Amino acid sequence: MRIINSNRIVLTALLAASAALGLTACSGSISVNPSVSSADFAKNVKTSLDKQSGLSTTVDCGSKDIDLTESAVVHCDVVGADSPDQHYDAAVTVSGIKGGAYDIAVKVSDQPKP
Fold it and tell me: Residue 53: which domain range?
């Protein structure tokens, strides 16, 4: 199964919070890239896949926040409601990061994970 889709996601509040942290920090390093929770990222991947396939999926992208870096590839676990025993790898490429928005392109493996 191969599904590719682009979504624009707005992260204005996250960027504002990151900017506020940057202004109050005395020392240390702060990521210049915005990030999104893995749960929110997985929700966006699920929405994209469900629209494209017409199927209901479950998506898990781990538990760590995801840095939104141009051309970053995030691997998520995808399970279709029609085959709950089969888990597929989805390579999700992040691009078009501008003003708190980003695009995703999702490619699901043709074969289930062993």
Answer: 12-19+32-108
Is 97 part of any domain? yes
Give the tens place of pLDDT for each residue, 37-54. Answer: 999 999 999 999 999 999
Predicted TM-score (pTM) of the model is: 0.71
Q: How far, CA to CA in Å, does 81 sit from each of 59, 61, 114?
A: 11, 17, 18
Q: Determine, yes or no, domain membership for 81.
A: yes
Our count of domains for the chain comes to 1
Residues in the chain, pLDDT under 50? 1-29
Sequence-separated (6 or more) residues with CB below 8 Å from residue 41: 61, 66, 74, 76, 92
Structural domain contains residue 39: yes
Query: Rounded to whole angstroms, how far apart are CA atoms 20 and 46?
Result: 31
